[in-house]
């Protein structure tokens, strides 16, 4: 993957917030809208919009370096593991990856492509590992962390101007996303100890919430570029 950095795109707000609009993308939207909170749904879609900006900044092209439908699917479903209707029988990254792969294969997506999405979702909290597993994993990880707007996702914040950020947030408002997502991760984690192994991301989120009442993720998010 190239490391070349390019200027932020100058596209209009309509282009910035346009989703793929394919039958698969529409089906993914219908799924996550029905099972996620509005805050987590908006976060999932913004992650895709931001991943696409990062791709352009890194010189990666849809159809060449990555498949846009797979990028949308992975970003949009990356938190499916904390959806209220899930079995909640394993850590949320893996549960979400399993559900996403099953959803894709049921719609005719090849096993190889579904596995790419599985990896991207399963590794989206694994900084230092996701970056070594190909363009899709990189872009999902960067899109997700970009949406936190601070120390978790500061590498590519220059890819988005303030005007572009306003355009995105007008359509997909933040709605105190960090608290909503943390609540969902904790609720999933407390159901079974194996859902939150110690030193894993969900394990640390659970420990911090139980010990301090507020996680570092929530604290840093409040002082990020986006605020709450």
Describe this entry's structure for a reader:
The structure is a single chain. The chain is an all-alpha fold and 228 residues long. It has a single domain, classed as Hypothetical protein af1432 (Orthogonal Bundle), CATH 1.10.3210. It is 56% helix and 0% strand. The chain has helices at 13-17, 23-35, 38-57, 68-76, 92-106, 111-122, 135-146, 162-171, 177-189, 201-212, 216-222. The longest helix has 20 residues, at 38-57. Mean pLDDT is 86; it is low at 1-11.
Our count of domains comes out at 1
What is the tally of helical segments? 11
Residue windows where pLDDT falls under 50 for at least 5 positions: 1-11
CATH architecture: Orthogonal Bundle
What pattern of helices and strands is seen along the backbone? HHHHHHHHHHH
| Average pLDDT number | 86
Write down how many β-strands occur, each being a DSSP E stretch of 2 or more residues. Answer: 0
Helices, strands, pairings?
Blueprint: H1 13-17, H2 23-35, H3 38-57, H4 68-76, H5 92-106, H6 111-122, H7 135-146, H8 162-171, H9 177-189, H10 201-212, H11 216-222
